[in-house]
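Support request from a user on the community tier.

User writes: "When I paste my structure tokens into the form, the page sometimes reloads and wipes my input. The last time it worked, I copied everything first. Here is what I submitted, just in case something in the input itself triggers the reload:"
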């Protein structure tokens, strides 16, 4: 069954630039059985109770919302800076060329709440590590992160593990 689900992820060569093998989850999302199995496997991999599932913009929102339902948790949105109404807190992180910033509502969680971080893909880990710093700055207990896809050659999951985060992913693909 794992290979069946992995086959639902389309690879688009040379997108967004030459040499990149883009792993497209839209084909997985189109398959009701595949999506249900993905959420069920992510739910089964979750350790202990969680209060909130934090999803990173934009595809992480889809999996965070779907996963929150069986976990009996709320959904916390982590967005690009400037996209949320109201008061926010933010965290900067490095890109290949420059910097970016993510934000969340400053009242999105109560200090001490247990938060599971979710996104569709982990590559270098820059955004996920920034999200964990942001959540912890707000007082969250973040001990685990889940991804549908890991690109282990880029080292993001290993970097998170080095930060003391339990990392789970359903599929690994070579390359970048």
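"...and here is what came back when it finally went through:"
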């Amino acid at each position: 069954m794992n290979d069946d689900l992995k086959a639902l992820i389309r690879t688009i060569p040379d997108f967004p630039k030459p040499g990149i093998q883009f792993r497209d989850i839209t084909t997985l999302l189109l398959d009701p059985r595949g999506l249900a199995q993905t959420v069920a496997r992510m739910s089964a991999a979750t350790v202990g109770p969680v209060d909130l599932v934090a999803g990173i913009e934009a595809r992480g929102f889809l999996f965070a919302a779907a996963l929150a339902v069986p976990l009996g948790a709320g959904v916390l949105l982590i967005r690009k800076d400037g996209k949320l109404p109201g008061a926010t807190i933010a965290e900067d992180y490095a890109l290949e060329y420059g910097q970016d910033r993510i934000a969340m509502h400053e009242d999105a969680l109560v200090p001490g709440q247990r938060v599971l971080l979710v996104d569709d893909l982990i590559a270098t880990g820059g955004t996920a590590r920034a999200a964990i710093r942001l959540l912890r700055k707000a007082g969250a207990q973040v001990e685990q992160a889940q991804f549908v896809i890991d690109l282990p050659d880029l080292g993001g999951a290993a970097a998170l593990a080095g930060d003391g985060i339990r990392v789970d992913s359903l599929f690994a693909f070579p390359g970048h």
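Agent notes: The reload is a front-end session timeout and is unrelated to the input. The chain has a mean pLDDT of 95. Residues 46-172 form a domain with the Rossmann fold fold (CATH 3.40.50.2020). Escalated to web team.
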